[in-house]
Amino acid sequence: MIHTNFNVRDNLRYFRVSGLRYTEILLILLAASWTGCTRNKIIINEKPPVGRFILSDTTISINQISFDSALKVNDAGYPSIDFRAFKGIKQKSIVKSYKAVTIENKYLRLVILPEHGKPYSFIYKVTGNEELFIPETAQVMGSPNKTGWWFALGGVEYNMPDEEHGETWSIPWEWEITENSLERKSLKMSVRERRFGLKETVIISVYHDKAYFEADITITNPTDSIIRFQHWINPMWVPGGNKEGLSPDTEFIMPTAEVYVTERSFNNWILDYSPDSSRLQPYTGSPLRFLKYWKGFGDLLAWKLEDGFYSAFCHQKNEGIVRVFPVEINPGCNIWSWGANPDPSTRSRFSGNNSHRGYVEMWGGITHGFDDYYPINPGDTIRWIEWMYPYANTSGLHFANQDLALTFFRKQGNDYELNLCPAGEIKDLRLLVRSEGTKATILDVRCRNANPLNNRERICFESKEEDLELVIIKEGRKIKSLPPSNPSL
Questions:
Q1: Residue 244 CB: number of other CB atoms within 10 A?
Q2: Mean pLDDT over residues 131-153, rounded?
Q3: What are the residue ranges spanned by the domains of the chain?
Q4: Distance between CA 444 and CA 431 in Å, rounded?
Q5: Are the beta carbons of 74 and 477 closer than 8 angstroms?
Q6: Is 388 helix (H, G, I), strand (E, B) or coil?
Q7: Which pLDDT score, from 0 to 100, does residue 20 have?
């Protein structure tokens, strides 16, 4: 690690930069006439790494509970479980083969189960960690959805037409590989749900120079009726690759000022965090941001998302995973977790391992909550594109978009810290710290070329200005302005 201290002329101001690992760093220190400030400019110009980019059409073996003999078909044409018959079956683990498509570049390795419409495994090659929940033995359990059951296979689900796990996870998806070029590899998965006839298509793409997978999602109403429905994305995350499950210091990051405790009996413990037992509670500074304060099963709804991202971050590993999406189309986010210290029966029921501490489901919906329904007219289509990627060495998350994840801290007194992790190879990006009032520049970071593999650490600096803001500029256009925040831990 490079740790450099700069003593500015005439002791006007002290400046430091720590842990910078760049191919090219240019620091320009200019003494300014106001309050002894120093202007600092950092230019990041990194050479992209070399790596392979491949797509493999194969099969994988998964340990799961045996349940085929208890399957039946319900009135809507969906498979369901005869739980009376299921209880009579001697429960045993089997190994079953699944069709799989693996896409790998220099930053990630993604395994998709296309017949299930599911990204299944997501390894962040920057750290080597698996970010998704993969149960030791995939389990069958009851569910409040209209099929009455759920197969806890892990990974990421795309669900409709109802709340929670919906129904489309339970039927076969059609699929095809649509692109296998040097720039992009894409897999198209489609399903027609059987209750109303809506059709969903999800195109999963990985680019040669990005650490994310992109999902291009289209929902079409081919019928002659207005259909009211829900669509929820359910990523099952274990950020930082903890094989034993979520770390107690995992932070649930949502850009919302308030959260709503949904009206379910297992949520009653959450009301203890409100002086008046209110279901609508502030989220900034709330203990509910951290798993270690979750006393049991919990279900927590973002009251109003202010930006199009949410994340789970493991402070123990300094690593997280984020979903980025258009918030005007996807206003819903709901957290569900086992709690900080689930009992052995819960651990076994979801993972097949009585020592596993669990994962977090951070649902994303085209409706605000599970009680809302989206009307789609005959012949209409809803479409959006979103991204999911891991990130590391940021000590949390204040903002994320398709290009990068970052934090901007005021640590104490005049000490500030800026952390960034690119979501792949990025160019022509500028991070400008300035006084909101005078517009005087305090720090100017220009990313000519940057990538995730350089494992950059902290950019620390001092300023006496009390109204700092971080301005994110992409290709000359202002993207976002952020005030500094206090460190989460």
A1: 11
A2: 94
A3: 3-45+425-482, 54-391
A4: 6
A5: no
A6: strand
A7: 38
The predicted-structure confidence for 173-190, as pLDDT tens digits, reads as follows 999 999 999 999 999 999
Q: What amino acid occupies position 149? A: W
CB 314 within 8 A of CB 249: yes
Reading the block at residue 44, the tokens are: 């990041």
Q: Is the pLDDT of residue 18 over 60?
A: no
In a 13 Å sphere around the CA of 245, the CA atoms on its Cβ side amount to 26
Cβ contact 286:273 at 8 Å: yes
How far are the Cα atoms of 81, 171, 267, 290, 398 from residue 148, in angstroms, in the given order? 8, 14, 21, 31, 38
Q: Average pLDDT, stretch 202-208? A: 98
Residues whose CB is less than 8 angstroms from the CB of residue 285 and which lie 6 or more positions away in sequence, other chains included: none
Q: Which residue has the tokens 């489609």?
A: 190
β-strand 199-207 against 79-81: which pairing, if any?
Answer: unpaired
Beta-carbon-side half-sphere exposure of residue 112 (alpha carbons within 13 Å): 29
Hey, what CATH topology would domain 54-391 get? Answer: Beta-galactosidase; Chain A, domain 5 (2.70.98)
Sheet holding 129-130, edge to edge: 54-65, 93-104, 108-113, 118-124, 129-130
315 falls in which pLDDT band (50, 70, 90)? Answer: very high
Torsion of CA 148, 154, 158, 161, to 10 degrees: 10
Q: Which residues contact 228 (CB under 8 A, 6 or more apart)?
A: 373, 374, 375, 376
Give how far Cα 251 sits from Cα of 154, 231, 242, 283, 361, Å: 20, 25, 14, 12, 13
* Lookup: tokens for 90: 């001697």
User: Whose CA is closest to 421, among 402, 393, 448, 460?
Assistant: 393
**DSSP calls for 65-110:** E--GGGEEE-TTS-EEE-HHHHHHS---EEEEEEEEEEEE-SSEEE
Burial class for 447, CB neighbours closer than 10 Å (0-12, 13-18, 19+): buried
Q: Over 80: is that where the pLDDT of 229 sits?
A: yes
Quick count: other Cβ atoms within 10 Å of Cβ 454?
19
Contact (CB, 8 A) for 160 and 200: yes
DSSP 257: S
Residue 91 scores a pLDDT above 90: no
